[in-house]
Amino acid sequence: MTRPLFNISADEHAGVPNVTHRHLPATPLSDDSVRIVSIETAIPTSMAPHLLMMRITTDAGIVGHGETFFCASAAAAMVHDYFATRLLGADALAIESHWRFLYERLANIGARGTELRALSAVDLALWDILGQVCGKPIYRLLGGPVRDRVKVYNSCANPTYSMPKQNQPPSKFGSWPGMGSIGQPGPVSDSYNYFHNPVELAKELIGLGYEAMKVWPFDYPAIQDGPTYISAGDVRQGLRGLEKIREAVGMDIEVMIDGHMHFGLPAALRIADALRPLKPLWLEDVLKTDNLDTLADFRRQSGMPISVSESVLTTADFAAVLEKRAADYIMVDPTWVGGISPSVRMGHLAGTYNLPVSMHDATGPLTMLSGLHVLAAMPNALYQETVRAQIRGVYRDIIDLDVKIADGAIALPRGAGLGTKVNPDIFKPDAPGYRKSSV
Ligand SMILES: [Mg+2]
């Protein structure tokens, strides 16, 4: 018998319907359910103040971890003030049910930004729990592996990229997205090194087995002069590092260019025109991705390979990118789009257009690991983005897995679920930004 969602009866006094609104039923519990008993979030301010770490505990004692990045306390508020009423006491393994329910509620208020980042952290933690219940890495549960290692490229950032010091307010060159500084000299200060010693950097990466590196040499003129114009001199200066690399090592290393969403169409076309002889593998976010028709124009007019991009957030938006022929490469951030669940859908969608998919990271260790699991099970996978300065630095303080890059690739994690645990000190109740919701 179908159960009504609403109990409607006549109000005996006023003669108007008395509507009792019941919650949409969560997925029924069954013998093999594990119930969510608590959700904890914390912000590791001394390590990575934009990062939100999550821990979901079940009545079986299994603990799953999740993460998202940017506006951490706002994402935490979405989880505790909004999602918890659905999740607490519910079956942790009914991932698609929870994802669909929460996404559809979020769609009522636009389903972007903070909302999807909060959902991402939950989705990762639930996949981590499912993997542990099954005793398998997540890529196994996605039908993988289709490869035993995932190729990476090195994004040439400094150790503190996206990780400003505690209490450091955003500044013109501070922690705003796409407005990082060149930084200080150091062994893996790859942004500094690209601008000062590009050939040495490229040779070092080639020697380590990397086949690709990504740089963002046009951020500074954009920050100074705005999005509408870039001078020929600034373009020439931005090209200098790549020109030196091509002169020294030819095409022995692929180079991608990230524009960090800074430029409008004429400036983007001027940059693309100058880059053509240097054969970058792709141009990423040189033009803003907020108008897909202009983006498709940019691709047609420039004739350059275009990557689109961690700034696109829903499967429907990626479908529009593909339909408008605005991309040659697809890039997904698993902790911005709503987690592993939609990342898999987006990757396969790109595959139906015979396009490769890569996963974004420059933000957090679980973002990188969840990307690895997706790519391990994705036939059309190309690269996992990595920042070696972060992997050798702050990631080691946050997770207990020592991620190794060898010959330009990362071997698949072997542990169940995500294959790592988050440092429990981050979840101490007196830690900054700690919140807990429980049954
Ligand atoms: Mg990017």
**Overall CATH class of the largest domain:** Alpha Beta
Q: List the strand order in the largest sheet.
A: 6-7-8-9-10-11-12-13
Question: Using only CA atoms, what is the Rg?
Answer: 23 Å
CATH topology title of the largest domain: TIM Barrel
Beta-strand percent range: 15-25%
Largest sheet: 8 strands, parallel, barrel
CATH architectural category of the largest domain? Alpha-Beta Barrel
Give the N-terminus to C-terminus distance in angstroms: 30 Å
Outline of the structure:
With 439 residues, this protein is an alpha/beta fold. The protein is built from 15 helices and 15 strands. It folds into 2 domains: 36-136 and 424-438, Enolase-like, N-terminal domain (Enolase-like, domain 1); 140-411, Enolase-like C-terminal domain (TIM Barrel), CATH 3.20.20.120.
